[in-house]
Design a protein that fits this description.
By secondary structure, the protein is α+β, with helices and mostly antiparallel strands. The protein has one domain. It contains six helices and four strands. The protein has a four-stranded antiparallel β-sheet. Helix 2 packs parallel to helix 5 and helix 5 runs antiparallel to helix 6. The longest helix is centred in the N-terminal third of the chain and has 25 residues. It is globular, with a radius of gyration of 20 Å. 24% of the residues are buried.
Length: 182
């Protein structure tokens, strides 16, 4: 009964009014992510150059992440590879359903960033020894040294998507209307 009511209300688990926006953002995110990685490896030859300083606090360096975010749960064998790929697939399916039911453009774009980032990193796992990470943020002064984990543009898109979802859910909602006094 509820399923029929959902369909009658125009709410789908597969495609919604803002799905095209989210899919467009996901495709662009995936292309930019994969393009940056291919360019850095094949044209710029970052692997051959080693560590390249961009600024005093940002370097480019190739690392292969066989785990998940922040290098957690490193996997070397097929079982680990398959488990991570299965987890990512389940996450993308969940996000796709959320996208189909999204009611704001910000939510759709944010979900597109997350989906595109997840797919970009999943593509890495299919043809490389792991996810290619290449941006190293660090601060080094006399007596103090800080190094952030090495990340890529897909990771950046995922974080930006999560921040946008938090913003949208906490602050960007439509304010409640005041009840009429009379």
């Amino acid at each position: 009964m509820a399923d029929a009511a959902e369909r009658k209300a125009g709410r789908s688990y597969v495609w919604g009014p803002l799905s095209a926006l989210g899919v467009g953002v996901a495709v662009i995110t995936g292309i930019v992510d994969q393009g940056s990685k291919l360019w850095l490896l094949d044209v710029f030859d970052l692997a051959g150059r080693g560590r390249v300083a961009l600024t005093a606090f940002v370097d480019l360096v190739v690392t292969w992440n066989t785990g998940i975010s922040y290098g957690l749960f490193q996997q070397q064998g097929f079982a680990g590879f398959f488990a991570l790929l299965t987890f990512k697939t389940a996450a993308v399916v969940f996000l796709w359903i959320w996208l189909a039911r999204a009611s704001s453009r910000l939510t759709a774009a944010a979900l597109g960033l997350i989906i595109g980032g997840a797919l970009g990193n999943a593509i890495d796992r299919l043809h490389w020894p792991g996810v290619m990470d290449f941006v190293l943020f660090h601060i080094e002064t006399s007596g103090f040294s800080f190094r952030w984990y090495v990340f890529n543009l897909a990771d950046l898109a995922i974080v930006a998507g999560v921040v946008a979802l938090l913003y949208d859910s906490l602050w960007a909602g439509t304010p409640q209307k005041r009840p009429d006094p009379g």
